[in-house]
Amino acid sequence: MPRLNEIEPEDADAFTRKLYQRVGMVPNLYVVMANSPMVLDGFLKLTSCLEGSRLDKKTREMIYLLTSQIDECEYCLASHTQTATEHGVLTASESLDARRGRSDDPKVDAMLAFARELVERRGRVRDETLARVRSVGYGDEEILDAIGTVALATLSNYIALVAEPDLDFLDAPELE
Question: 93 and 109 in contact (C-beta within 8 Å)?
């Protein structure tokens, strides 16, 4: 049972109902976020802004999964594994590799190493890690997009970890 209230669409204020209409299917995490319409709105706006990122969707999803794995957020692992594979953004194998922080693509692999260090060292990325991600062709814009993706993932992870919403997605497979 969730530890924070859930604001279902029929119980939401007009502003929150409009937010719900924008997303269509309303995941359980969003009905928890709706306790603060400003948090939900900000989350949706950052999500939308990152869609226009120079960092491709596949890499962003891999960063999201890696961040959720490090944070041990079952809810976000389940939701992003299911949606990324159902929409053809990642294969099942790629989603598992992302959670392990690796990719067969050397460029993406460098970005995942950057993202891992960003999360684990709380932003204190070493010079050599930053140099590596730049050496494979990422510029400051993509680096900031990756930081934004980590921030977005962290926000949803922390809310899910505190609230413990019921999973409305299939469980993510276990890592071996």
Answer: no
Q: Which of 72, 78, 53 is nearest to 119 (CA)?
A: 72
Query: Distance (Å, rounded) from C-alpha 106 to C-alpha 162?
Result: 35
3-state secondary structure of 119: helix
Q: How far apart are CA 43 and CA 151, in angstroms?
A: 10
**What are 105-128's pLDDT values in tens digits?**
999 999 999 999 999 999 999 999
Name the residue among 77, 78, 81, 48 with its Cα closest to residue 148. 48
pLDDT tens digits for 17-52? 998 998 888 999 999 999 999 999 999 999 999 999
Residue-level pLDDT at 90: 97
Say how far apart CA 157 and CA 84 lie, in whole Å: 17
Q: Quick one: which of 12, 3, 15 has its CA closest to 31?
A: 12
Tell me the Ramachandran region of residue 115: left when phi exceeds 0, alpha when psi lies from -120 to 50, beta otherwise.
alpha
Q: In this structure, which topology does domain 57-163 adopt according to CATH?
A: AhpD-like (1.20.1290)
Amino acid (one-letter) located at 146: A
Half-sphere exposure of 120 toward its Cβ, with a 13 Å CA cutoff?
Answer: 13
pTM score = 0.94
* Tokens 């510029």 sit on residue: 139
| Domain boundaries along the sequence of the chain | 13-51, 57-163
